[in-house]
Amino acid sequence: MASWSRQRPESPGGFQPHLSRTLFLLLLLAASAWGVTLSPKDCQVFRSDHGSSISCQPPAKIPSYLPADTVHLAVEFFNLTLLPPNLLQGTSKLQELHLSSNRLESLSPEFLRPVPQLRVLDLTRNSLTGLPPGLFQASATLDTLVLKENQLEVLEASWLHGLKALRHLDLSGNCLRKLRPGLLANFTLLRTLDLAENQLETLPPDFLQGPLQLERLHLEGNKLQELGKDLLVPQPDLRYLFLNGNKLARVAAGAFHGLRQLGMLDLSNNSLASVPEGLWTSLGQPNRDMRDGFDISSNPWICDQNLSDLYRWLQAQKDKMFSQNDTRCAGPEAVKGQMLLAVAESQ
């Protein structure tokens, strides 16, 4: 590893490309253990035959140009409202771009055109309220887009045109109140969708039409009140479903029908007092699903005869149940405060 500035010539090093961002940062931290001294005014650089990986954080200065072989670039914690206009010029081999923890308010429509091989774009913790249409017209290879913790109140489909290979989309921690119908229609390869910690109260009926093999769906920390019977139908291979921390009071009887591979379900911290008979029928089949467990804790369960279907299901699945001690009855008075599982086993 070496420091890099405009005056420093390129030299070979030992970085291997495609390392995860976590491993990349660990290697940076290990520099001191290797006896490498870095100038605080320079960005940190790993070099290899495959290209350069560069990390710039204050007090380093953002360079006016980058090596042509740059494959990984991190420019973080600078509190920038705008990026240098030619930051990516001459870096056509760039594959990962991390711009987290700045104060970016907008991006130019032409910003990503110099980097057609980009696979990862991380814009976590900025101040974006929108994206310019056309931003991703040259981003056919982008498979990971992280817009976590910005200030998005709406999300327009036109902002995302051009993302043909998108597999991971993180929109968590924004201010989204509703989603446009057909938003995901062209994202056939999408595997992970994270909409946690927004302000969503409802979802369009066709919300999940488009992806062919969605595996992870994060909807926790919103204001959803109802889960309809058709919402999840387009995603029979869904493996992880997070609905915790909403205001769910109603779940349709057929909401989970057809989920052939569901391994994790989190319904904790909602407003569920009862659920319809048949809700659990398709879940927890032997050697097939619910392998990673489920959580229905911190709901105001009314433990009467209307939960008989749930009682039977819990007894068969109790070894997969998280937070058993926090899953208690809110009524009737005779069982108030008792563990729901204990009540189920007494029936």
UniProtKB/TrEMBL annotation:
Per the UniProt record, one Pfam family is LRR_1
Q: Does the keyword Signal apply?
A: yes
Record keywords, A-Z: Glycoprotein, Leucine-rich repeat, Repeat, Signal
Domain of life (superkingdom): Eukaryota
The signal peptide annotation in the UniProt record is: 1-35
Query: What SUPFAM superfamilies does the record tag this protein with?
Result: L domain-like
PROSITE patterns on file: LRR
Q: Which InterPro entries match?
A: Cys-rich_flank_reg_C (IPR000483), Leu-rich_rpt (IPR001611), Leu-rich_rpt_typical-subtyp (IPR003591), LRFN (IPR050467), LRR_dom_sf (IPR032675)
Which stretches make up the LRRCT domain?
299-347
> Does the keyword Cytoplasm belong to this entry?
no
Gene3D superfamilies to which the protein is assigned, alphabetical: Ribonuclease Inhibitor
**Name of the protein this chain belongs to:** Leucine rich alpha-2-glycoprotein 1
- What species is given as this protein's source? Piliocolobus tephrosceles
Taxonomic lineage is: Eukaryota, Metazoa, Chordata, Craniata, Vertebrata
